[in-house]
TrEMBL record:
It comes from the Bacteria. SUPFAM superfamilies: Homeodomain-like, Regulatory protein AraC. PROSITE patterns: HTH_ARAC_FAMILY_2. GO terms for molecular function: DNA-binding transcription factor activity; sequence-specific DNA binding. It comes from Dictyobacter aurantiacus. SMART domains: HTH_ARAC. It holds the Pfam family HTH_18. Keywords: DNA-binding, Transcription, Transcription regulation. The keyword Zinc does not apply. InterPro entries: AraC-bd, Homeodomain-like_sf, HTH-like, HTH_AraC, RmlC-like_jellyroll. This is HTH araC/xylS-type domain-containing protein. Residues 185-283 form the HTH araC/xylS-type domain.
């Protein structure tokens, strides 16, 4: 079997240096229209305009059609594949977290959600108008276009959040008033979005304004596992999903999951799952 490396899409290749936000209008024409399973350094929100197909997200297949909207983080790997004879048309927005107001980011990611919504026809029409406005502003470069683009993106994301759950969403409190437990919850969000990177306990503690020593002790007390164990489990679960849903070679999987060496990855994998990475292989996703 011929293996294809897992693609890593960088922010420098997909957005400009001045504004970490860009929108594309795409048409995917064949079964490999999404370019294969990949992950990226940035966030991505997509909206299907027309056509039908499949969205392979973290190893799980979901049907897509007009009105489907999804939000991906740097922790996700995915591929969009049109159905036979179909063309998938979509708006695709890529951005860095820095472009969002802090309150919007906390509202979206105060819990570990995976955002996927199927809008009704009327809702889809309104959402298409929002994406079209964002697309038009990105191509006109008029006075204030960047501000309108950011504001439109934030409206899209909040609409996606509102439709994601029917339960009442409680606004997270500001960082200055956050309890220690809420800070710990935010550290999990950061971990889940950045676990592929060479993270340290000190770095994550700084993100939530706690001392490394206190953060380490409190993390272990609340979750019953050390920070390093939690981080390694995240990487192993990601690697396991990738191995069982793609033909990406193991030499690429371990690096994509955040491990520094193959021997360390193989030992940790066997210890957790009771078998080697090679034994986890299944038939590739068709």
């Amino acid at each position: 079997m011929r293996h294809t490396a897992l693609k890593r899409l960088s922010s420098t290749d997909h957005m400009g240096p001045d504004l970490p936000l860009h929108i594309y209008r795409q048409a995917l024409h064949d079964a490999n229209g999404g370019g294969g399973v990949h992950w990226h350094e940035f966030y991505e929100v997509g909206f299907i305009l027309a056509g039908q197909g499949r969205h392979i997200l973290n190893g799980t297949e979901h049907p897509v059609q007009r009105g489907n909207c999804f939000l991906l983080t740097p922790a996700d790997f995915h591929d969009l594949r049109p159905a036979s004879g179909e063309t998938l048309e979509l708006f695709d927005v890529v951005f860095l977290a820095d472009v969002l107001q802090g309150a919007v980011y906390r509202l979206l990611f105060h819990a570990l959600h995976s955002y996927r919504v199927d809008f009704t026809p009327d809702e889809a029409q309104r959402m298409e108008q929002e994406f079209q406005r964002l697309y038009d502003e990105s191509n006109t470069h008029r006075v204030g276009s960047e501000l309108i683009m950011i504001g439109t993106l934030e409206r899209i994301l909040i609409d996606l959040l509102r439709h994601h759950s029917q339960r009442e969403i409680q606004q997270p409190i500001g960082e200055s008033a956050a309890t220690q437990y809420q800070k710990l919850s935010l550290s999990l969000i950061y971990l889940h979005h950045h676990f592929r990177e060479p993270l340290t306990l000190k770095e994550v503690a700084q993100q939530v304004h706690l001392s490394p020593t206190y953060f380490s002790e409190y993390f272990h007390q609340v979750y019953g596992i050390t920070f390093q164990q939690y981080l390694q489990d995240l990487r192993l679960r990601f690697a396991h999903s990738l191995l069982t849903s793609s033909s990406v070679p193991i030499s690429h999987v371990y690096a994509a999951a955040g491990f520094q060496t193959l021997p360390h990855f193989e030992r940790a994998f066997k210890q957790k799952f009771g078998h080697t990475p090679r034994q986890s292989r299944r038939q590739p996703v068709r």
